[in-house]
Amino acid sequence: DLKAGVEAFAKKHPKNIYLLQRRARKALAEKKWEATKAPCRELIELFPHQAGGDSAYLMLARAHRELKEFKEERKVLDQFVVLTDDAFDVYLRLMELGAKAKDWKAVRSSAQRALAVNPLLAVPYRHLAEAAEVLKQADAAIGAWKTVLKLDPRDPAEAHYRLARLLYSKDDPSAKRHLLMALEEAPRFREAHRMLLEMNDELKESGK
Questions:
Q1: What is the mean pLDDT of each run of 10 residues along the chain (208 residues)?
Q2: 126 Cβ contact list (under 8 Å, min separation 6)
Q3: Can you tell me the distance from the alpha carbon of 72 to that of 74, in angstroms, rounded to the nearest whole number?
Q4: By three-state DSSP, how is residue 86 classified?
Q5: Which residues, other chains included, contact 89 with Cβ-Cβ below 8 Å and sequence gap of 6+?
C-alpha cells in the first residue's frame, strides 16, 4: 500500500527534502512540537536559503514558541529574516521577543524593518516609541508616540499618557493637553490622575 511504500522510500532516502517537509508538516499539524524539530533542522541544513511562507525556519520557530523556548525561537527567526525583506509578521514577533528579553536595540531594528514593509500600522511605531524611551532618545520617542496616535491605536489613552510624560519632562506645555486626552479616553487612569495632581501642584508652587 501507499503508506508502506512511502515508509520504505523514507528509509532508503532519509535526506529526501519532500519527505522531510512531509514529516515536519505532519508533526506540526498533530501538535507534536518536539517531533517537529529534527526534520526542520535537517531541512535547514540541506537547504539554508528557504525564505517562503512554508519555510522550515518558520515551522521550527513555531515549535519553539509552543514549547515556550523563546530564546531558541528568536534565534531561528533572526536567521530567517536575513533571507527576506518583507516578513512583516516575523518582524512583529521579533519585536515582542526583543521586548521580553529587554533587548531594545533589537526591538528598534525589527520595528524599523516592519515599517519599511508597512508604514501605516500603529504597532511597530509603539514598539519604536518604547525602545526609544528606554534608550533615552526622548525626541524619537515623542515622534513615534505622535505617529501612533495618528494611526488609530488600540489603546489611545496609554499613548497620550506616555507622550504627556515625555513632553512634561521637556517642559512642553502641550503635555497637559495630552494628559487630559488620556483621561478623556480612560477616566479611571490612575497614573494619569497622579500626574495631573503633580502638574497642578507645580503650578500652584510657581504661582501661575
A1: 58 74 95 97 90 89 98 96 91 96 96 94 96 96 97 95 96 95 96 93 72
A2: 144, 145, 148, 153, 159
A3: 5
A4: coil
A5: none
Indicate yes or no: pTM above 0.90.
no
Backbone angles phi, psi at 137, to 5 degrees: -110, 75
CA–CA separation, 159 and 142 (whole Å): 10
Between CA 54 and CA 142 the distance in angstroms is 38
Find, among 60, 95, 66, the residue nearest to 79 by Cα.
60
What the block records as the C-alpha cell of 178 is: 495630552
Residue keyed to cell 515623542: 142
Longest dimension (CA), the chain: 91
Q: Give the span between the Cα atoms of 1 and 52, in whole angstroms.
A: 32
First to last CA, the chain: 89
Is 67:59 a contact under the CB 8 Å cutoff?
no
- Note the helical H segments in the chain: 2-12, 17-29, 33-46, 56-66, 70-81, 88-100, 104-117, 122-134, 138-150, 156-169, 174-185, 190-206
